[in-house]
Amino acid sequence: MEVKFNEEALAVAHKIIARYPEGKQKSALIPLLHLAQAEFNGWLSPETMAYVGSLLKIQAVEVYEVASFYSMFNLKPVGKCLIEVCRTSSCWLRGANEIIEHIEKKLGIKDGETTQDGMFSLKTVECLGSCGTAPMMMIGAQFHENLTYEKVDTILDSCKSEDKRKTYFDEVTVKDY
Amino acid sequence: MAKVTIDGRTIEVPDGTTILQAARMIGPEVAPPTMCYYSKLKTSGGYCRTCLVEVTKGSEKDPRPMPKLVASCRTTVMDGMEVGNNTSPKVTEARKGVVEFLLLNHPLDCPICDQAGECHLQDLSYEHGSSKTRTDFERRTYDKIDIGEKIQLHMTRCVLCYRCVKVANQITDGRVHGVMNRGDHSEISTYVEQAIDNDFSGNMIDVCPVGALTDKTFRFKSRVWFTKPVTAHRNCEKCSGKVNLWYKGEEVLRVTGRKDQWGEVEEFICNTCRFDKKQTSDWTIEGPTVVNRHSVISANHYEVLAKPNEFKLNEVKPLPLKEGEKS
Amino acid sequence: MGKKILLEHDHVPGIQGYEVYRNCGGYASVEKAIKTMSAEAMVEEVKKSGLRGRGGAGFPTGMKWSFLAKPEGVPRYLVCNADESEPGTFKDRYLMSRIPHILVEGMITSSFALGVNTAFIYIRGEYFYIVRILENAIKEAYANGWLGKNILGSGYDLDLYVQVGAGAYICGEETALLESLEGKRGNPRIKPPFPAIAGLYGCPTVVNNVETIASVPYIINNGGDDYAKIGIGRSAGTKLISASGHINKPGVYEIEMGITVEDFIYSEEYCGGIKNGKKLKAVVAGGSSVPVLPADKIINLPSGEKRLMTYESLSEGGFAGGTMLGSGGFIVMDETTSIVENLFTFARFYHHESCGQCSPCREGTSWMEKILHKIMDGHGTLADIDLLWEIQSKIEGNTICPLGDAAAWPVASAIRHFRHEFEAYVTNPNAVNKVRHYENMNA
After folding, report:
1. Per-residue pLDDT tens over the stretch B50-79
2. Mean pLDDT of all residues in chain C?
3. Which residue range(s) make up the domain with A20?
4. What is the three-class DSSP state of B325?
5. Residue B315 to residue B304: CA distance in whole angstroms
6. In C, which residues are within 8 Å of A98 by CB distance?
7. Which residues on chain B are in Cβ contact (under 8 Å) with A61?
8. Percent helix, strand and coil across chain C, each rounded to 5?
9. Cis ω on the peptide bond leading into residue A135 (within 30° of 0)?
10. What is the set of domains in chain B, with CATH numbers?
11. Strands B2-6 and B284-288, how do they pair?
């Protein structure tokens, strides 16, 4: 399959690129990678990265260097619903370990794995700035806070029918900005 | 001009000179060791932290000492500055720590590494490290990859000096390898498996301070101390054609750039000179190479080396312990 | 009740929107600045205010502004550091999502003072939902003539953009942030040059924290002297504290600097005491990087007086007996907490977030995590505790950026104040009571 933004996404990409001074278009790289990840099934394939590189007229290796540095970019396929659970101090103090255990048991997967049906991926992450409402998890761009086992169950059950991978794009209003 | 004193020895240097450059001007006795800095590559240095020094007096104007050790390769001198390198206990301690960090995941596979004998990490650990390791964790490993026909990348040995990336950025057109991932997962790699196909890519081998990037045409041919370096040149359209030929008997085993006393190439050479011209008839020989860097090569004792069968096992003694070390 | 500057209108319904914010006196500082003040006079007011950088380092803002180089014909940039990622800190998130216009107003006023025509808010990628909130606020500001060309007919132009990160704590370090904003890996730059001389795209740049920028409108409206009167001495003004952990009322509180730590933890106005009536064990007062202090040392000074929530009082006692205000990430641990296990979460964090450029941090952070993991698995030895101490001391001060120090200090302070816990862990690991915090919290 040829990797290419649809018209709408391409228009957004060009708007982002136009923000930066002449010759500094590489600044658009991270926003464009977010956009590409949202557009192409929640992860960045080598083809996707090469495509983004071509939009910015930079070497593919430069895209790969950047994409592999930042923890939000997935360089391997993920489930339709990526669950990211924080486990740093404040969350740990209020039960993050037990919440992770609970999710692992419920979905039958471990940290870093995806359910067989390709629906859920579980990823433990470091502090997401939700320490006062700990424990927490992020799905798509949405924070779910003050988690209890019951709350986790309700959220995951409601996610079952949705593809959350496009959430970022939907959340960003950059299109009319 | 600025006057700077390093380990008690004073020199006057132009403004903008770094502490490291000033120290090298004074001489190798006071020059801090380097693993990532390379005077021929722009923006190199600052990463490895082996050249940390103590600034005990900032300048004549502001004599306050600097609160932290500084990377001498990236700090410029001020008039009246006083610097402690080998004379500073703080530097000795910090450097010992740096060596330990650099070796933490290093495979210590010198017996099978082509770089052995001309490896900066070997020299550094011998001079500044400890003879014992304090880690019992499994070391990081990577698969070897070929980047092109002639160069092999053995990431397991890499110390992430960034020199090869800077070579690709600064003297080749179009870089296809770089630093991927982050933290202790960082690695030099190509974007998907891709050959580096460029006239000057071979210089990455010369700038690599360790055995991470090696010349495949030289691989396992000989220990470097059994080869004889000769200075030679040829008329080359692409580069200066000024090289070292490394002979074993009548055979040229490899061609490299000429290195100065700091182990840096004097001029970058092209891949044709490096990989394709291995006949004596390709070159005008200038004479035997004087190797300034203290190393097994500079000893140049290969003619009089005892042959292995002359050793008697019970006469082999362990290396002497350094001061303060426990056996 | 202490004075509120940033959160004064937090309770007003609709304060997220432009109309309500404007009706509460919003954007007055832009008007005052552009119509009546010179850029120099504004920098002077900020200097007089004693405002210090709220991101963690506490560097005087006015001084930082005055360092900005102003060569002819070269653009200057203002970049707001909204990369809030220090564990225990969530104040900027709170402020931006509740009162986005206070940041937009601060950016405009500050940009005018610095002679900047293009400004960026660099926000961490995980705060994606706030990007929309900020971009809406910016859109409203454009629509009402506070941004764009010829603001208030003065001839002054300003464009403001939100730039999103993608998950990297290190981008909170200002030069790593600039690298990231240029579309590169978030590797801190080697200084000098400092951003004030060569920052974004090699041009003079000021990087300020969200809370710092949001404090500027008050200073311009009321004068630096007025601001300096709030708080105590060199700890001028108010500070947003993010309170988390084992307390009854976690959340963001704006405090007037100078209240006692004890009051902050136990009073109903703030944290409301320790959850479930447990005893206080330890506090990390300024985000994960600052030294942890046991209960008696955080509540009381070595002199016996009460410790205050100020830069100076928190650091009294030096590194051995004090801590730091840092970013104001206040993490409270009750008596059931294992200091060793909490430290492990920090060590894992710094290992995960080290950029990998310089060797002490790249190798040292991962080594410390492995040793702590080994200890928690019951395989540690007494020598491992000394080794941990050694490693942190070899990282501290020897790295390119402060992440090395930030990774070293929690280890040093935990061993310094709680060595007995480490010893107990390695000498009799089976006796360690592994607490399930979830069950404790939901009892």
Report:
1. 999 999 999 999 999 999 999 999 999 999
2. 96
3. 7-69
4. coil
5. 19
6. 436-439
7. 175-178, 190-191
8. 50, 15, 35
9. yes
10. 2-88 (3.10.20.740), 142-218 (3.30.70.20), 224-298 (no CATH)
11. unpaired
Residue C72 has pLDDT above 60, yes or no: yes
* DSSP state for residue C300 in the 8-state scheme: B
Q: Which residues are CB-neighbours of C393 under 8 A, at least 6 positions away? A: B97, C408, C412
Is the separation of the CB atoms in B211 and B284 below 8 Å?
Answer: no
Q: Please report the sign of the dihedral spanned by the C-alpha atoms of residue C32, residue C35, residue C36, residue C40.
A: positive
Which candidate, C391, C305, C310, places its Cα nearest to that of C350?
Answer: C391
The phi and psi torsions of C247 (rounded to 5 degrees) equal: -125, 165
> Rounded to whole angstroms, how far apart are CA atoms B170 and A58?
16
Q: Which of A27, A89, A142 sits opposite C183 (nearest CB)?
A: A27
pLDDT band at C261 (very low <50, low <70, confident <90, very high): very high
- For residue B162, give both structure tokens: 């960034």
Do A86 and A148 have their domain in common? yes
Among the candidates A44, A69, A94, a domain finishes at A69
Of the partner residues A28, A97, A98, the one whose CB lies closest to the CB of residue C183: A28
Is A140 part of a structural domain of the chain? yes
- For the domain that residue A21 is a member of, what is the CATH number? 1.10.10.1590
Residues A21 and A44 occupy one common structural domain = yes
Residue C417: name the closest of C244, C296, C306 by CA: C296
Q: Is A141 domain-assigned?
A: yes
Q: Do C320 and C243 meet the contact criterion of CB atoms below 8 Å apart?
A: no
Q: Same domain, yes or no, for A23 and A59?
A: yes
Please indicate, yes or no, whether residues A87 and A147 belong to a single structural domain of this protein: yes
Model confidence, pTM: 0.94
Look up residue C169 and give its DSSP letter. G
Kind plus residue range of the DSSP H or E element containing A8: helix A7-17
Q: CB B100 to CB C398 under 8 A?
A: no
Strand arrangement, sheet containing B70-71: B9-13, B2-6, B81-84, B52-57, B70-71
Considering the domain architecture, whether residues A62 and A104 belong to the same structural domain is answered as no
Q: Could you give the number of structural domains in chain A? A: 2
A168 within a domain of the structure (yes/no): no
Per-residue pLDDT tens for C307-325?
999 999 999 998 889 999 9
Tell me, yes or no, whether A95 and A155 share the same domain: yes
CATH of the domain at A152: 3.40.30.10
Cβ contact, residue pair C88, A90, below 8 Å: yes
Are A24 and A85 found together in one domain?
Answer: no
| A73 neighbourhood in chain C, CB within 8 Å | 166-167
Residue of A nearest to B190 (CA): A61
Q: Work out the angle between the directed axes of helices C100-114 and C28-36 (0-180°, nearest 10).
A: 10
B186 touches chain C (CB under 8 A): yes
Asked if C207 and A56 touch (Cβ cutoff 8 Å), the reply is no
Q: Which residues of C touch B160 (CB under 8 A)?
A: 356-357, 359, 362
Whether A76 is in a domain gets the answer no
What pLDDT shows up at residue C182?
Answer: 98
SS3 of chain A: helix, strand, coil, percent, to 5: 50, 10, 40
Q: Could you say which of A22, A48, A69 is where a domain stops?
A: A69
What is d(CA C244, CA A136) in angstroms, rounded to the nearest whole number?
Answer: 13
Separation CA B143–CA B3 (nearest Å):
49
pLDDT tens, residue order, chain B (327 aa): 999 999 999 999 999 999 999 999 999 999 999 999 999 999 999 999 999 999 999 999 999 999 999 999 999 999 999 999 999 999 999 999 999 999 999 999 999 999 999 999 999 999 999 888 899 899 999 999 888 889 999 999 999 999 999 998 998 877 888 999 999 999 998 876 666 678 899 999 999 999 999 999 999 999 998 999 999 999 999 999 999 999 999 999 999 999 998 999 999 999 999 999 999 999 999 999 877 655 566 544 444 434 444 444 444 454 555 555 554
Do A12 and A65 lie in a common domain? yes
Q: How far apart are CA A100 and CA A124, in angstroms?
A: 8
